[in-house]
Design brief:
Blueprint: H1 5-11, E1 23-27, E2 30-33, E3 38-41, H2 44-47, H3 56-66, H4 79-91, E4 96-100, H5 103-122, E5 128-132, H6 141-146, H7 150-153, E6 163-166, H8 171-177, E7 182-187, H9 201-213, E8 217-221, E9 245-248, E10 259-263, H10 265-268, H11 284-297, H12 300-324, E11 327-333, E12 336-341, H13 349-358, E13 361-362, E14 364-365, E15 370-373, H14 381-399
Helix pairs in contact: 3-11, 4-11, 12-14, 13-14
Length: 406
């Protein structure tokens, strides 16, 4: 079969518009397409490939478990799921774990749990959920409505009710919405899709205090910010605020689909037998791989390495900006960074992404005004430097500078 980009248009639902190239092989922070062209990967599968492509220890975990047991359903438990749950609870505030297959599923579970907790403790009137404008929490109808981007939730009929949105980093906006009717507040401790926006410490601590005042559960969506991405195992650890429920996915499987919701024993007991479930959630194959990811990432070497590599990125991007004056600021934390375009390049982030691909560099965007970088946490320093050289060529193209490169 001749597999080309044209085949996508023939056989796939048109909700995506992938690039023309089709990668066929990856190793570390490099990718190769059908023609054998090599690319440096600053996209990381949208913050998923936390240890790069085909990390040998993940390949070993996959093949070893793949010869033992793939799937059981939750009629039975399994050793990899129990080991992974123990490691997650040992490493975080969480005492209980629910496994799913994606970030949206983990968030769906968190929201259902919060509603059930409030119903059991306070009654049906306590049902309001507050989240934040420009937030992103998944594409199920519940999670996309909780997300703060109406373009993703409009046009599908009546939306789930009792959901309100405040302005991120604006405590007064949030305080105006929260009341004793609020059952849960869902927020990203670093907004990803919304533009790589870090919270101020005062804001996140104020949200926590108001949740406590009104007996509302605080849910941290760490689908993108978790598993070492910010230089902490989870972003909450660097903010001095502990949520009641945390969701994690993306990087947790290093490329294999898995998600998880973590919470306390007291809160968890409200998801009684039969109240929620997942056929594939907690399957042995996914959990065995995620266990290995956690073993590798949750080490001082990797987490400190993230902070070092962040500085390499920041210095490199700032040097590019010194020459081309196209960025307003470099945002984010760890290896979830955004180059926010200034007013002269408003709405043109995709042009930078396309130009980067032409220079054999994969990156991302976060909205129309931010170029996003979410590479492997163990990307070699030399790959960062070479990737930034390629990105500079892309910037030169977009800016239209007449510069010759070696």
């Amino acid at each position: 079969m001749n597999v080309t980009r044209d085949l996508f248009n023939e056989v796939m639902v048109p909700n995506y518009n992938p690039a023309a190239i089709i990668p066929v092989k990856g190793l570390g922070s490099r990718l190769w397409d059908q023609a054998g062209t090599e690319y440096i990967d600053f996209a990381g599968g949208i913050a998923v490939n936390v240890l790069g492509h085909c990390h040998p220890e993940l390949v070993s975990a996959l093949t070893e478990q793949g010869q033992k047991l793939w799937h059981l359903s939750n009629v039975l438990t399994n050793e990899p799921a129990l080991r992974l749950a123990k490691k997650l609870t040992d490493a975080t505030f969480g005492e209980k774990v629910y496994f799913a297959n994606s970030g949206a599923e983990a968030n769906e579970a968190a929201l259902k749990l919060a509603r059930r907790f409030a119903l059991d403790h306070f009654g049906a009137q306590k049902d309001q959920i507050i989240s934040f404008k420009q937030g992103f929490h998944g594409r199920t109808f519940f999670t996309v409505t909780v997300g703060g981007q109406t373009a993703y939730s409009d046009g599908f009929g009546p939306k789930p009710g009792a959901i309100e949105h405040a302005d991120y980093n604006d405590l007064a906006s949030f305080e105006a919405l929260i009341s004793d009717k609020t059952c849960a507040v869902m927020m990203e401790p670093l907004q990803g899709e919304g533009g790589i926006i870090s919270p101020t410490i005062d804001f996140v601590k104020g949200v926590r205090a108001l949740c406590d005042k009104h007996n509302a559960l605080l849910i941290f969506d760490e689908v993108q910010s978790g598993v070492g991405r910010t230089g902490e195992l989870y972003a909450y650890m660097g903010l001095g605020v502990v949520p009641d429920i945390l969701t994690t996915a993306k990087a947790l499987g290093g490329g294999f689909p898995i998600g998880a919701m973590l919470t306390t024993t007291e809160i968890a007991k409200h998801l009684k037998i039969g109240t929620h479930g997942s056929t594939y959630g907690g399957n042995p194959l996914g959990c065995a791989i995620a266990e290995k990811v956690l073993d590798i990432v949750n080490t001082p070497e990797v987490l400190n390495g993230v902070k070092h590599k962040e500085q390499l990125f920041r210095k490199g991007l700032e040097a590019i900006n010194d020459q081309y004056h196209c960025f307003e600021e470099i945002r984010g934390k760890g290896l979830l960074l955004g180059a926010a375009l200034n007013k002269n390049f408003t709405g043109r982030a995709k042009e930078f992404l396309v130009a980067a691909a032409e220079e054999h560099l994969m990156c991302l965007i976060a909205g129309a005004n931010v170029v996003r970088f979410a590479p492997s946490l163990i990307i070699p320093d030399e790959d960062i430097q070479e990737g930034l050289v390629r990105f500079e060529r892309a910037v030169a193209k977009v800016v239209g500078a007449d510069v010759s490169f070696k």
